[in-house]
Amino acid sequence: MQQSYNSTLLDNAVAQLSRLPGIGGKTALRLALHLLRQEEEAAVSLGQSLIDLRRNVHYCKRCHNISETEICDICSSARRDPTSICVVESVKDVLTIEATHEFHGLYHVLGGVISPLEGISPSDLEIESLVARVADEEVREVILALSPTIEGDTTNYYIFKRLAPYDINVSIPARGLSIGNELEFTDELTLGRSIINRIPFSDTFTAGH
Fold it and tell me: Is 86 found in the same domain as 35?
């Protein structure tokens, strides 16, 4: 049962803040009390920015990255290489790879990885829309930049088989990434080098089998 702080408004604020990932009751209370100590404009500005975020940020219809327009800035940029698509699990991974400044192609956000234990099947992910892009666009390479976990490798293999009918290169970042690590926690230098030195996915499959 949530602790009561003798103020319904404070109780409600703490309850809402504690719903955020990684925020427990004590942290939520500390944040709420911090906002009370600030000028009213600061709290209003924070609240409005969150409302604007929820109302006006959507997902790109092409790659499923976050966007304030129908097609995101990366997809619409003439400076990006449209023949190369980097497949990632989440929007956070796009931000992580962009921070390396080593990849200049386009992205495709799956929205997760295949995980039978969590009830996530291929149909729950943006895999078919990736296949459609490969079929319809002038794609020469698909880089499978998923976290090197069992679920990530399972998803890699599934996508590799789905793309087999198309005449494209399918690669993965070099395995300088530690097995089991999430992509977003990899340092930028290691991640950047692993993308530059990417290897054909078929080579790793052959070596592992």
Answer: no
Residue 78: which residues within 8 A CB-CB, separation 6 or more? none
Q: Does any domain span residue 3?
A: no
Residue 105 makes CB contacts below 8 A (sequence gap 6+) with 80, 81, 82, 83, 84, 85, 86, 141, 143
The reported pLDDT for the residue numbered 139 is: 97
For residues 48 and 113, state if they share a domain.
Answer: no
Instruction: Tell me the sheet residues that pair with 81.
Output: 105
DSSP assigned state of 114:
-
SS3 120: strand
Q: By the 8 A CB rule, do 18 and 10 touch?
A: no
The number of residues making up the chain comes to: 209
* Integer Cα distance of 187 and 102 in angstroms: 13
In degrees, rounded to 5, the angle at the alpha carbon of residue 201 between the alpha carbons of residues 198 and 207 is 110
Range with lowest mean pLDDT among 14-28, 78-92, 120-134, 165-179: 165-179
pLDDT digits (tens, 9 = 90+) for 32-56: 999 999 999 999 999 999 999 999 9
Give the structural domain span for 34.
Answer: 8-56
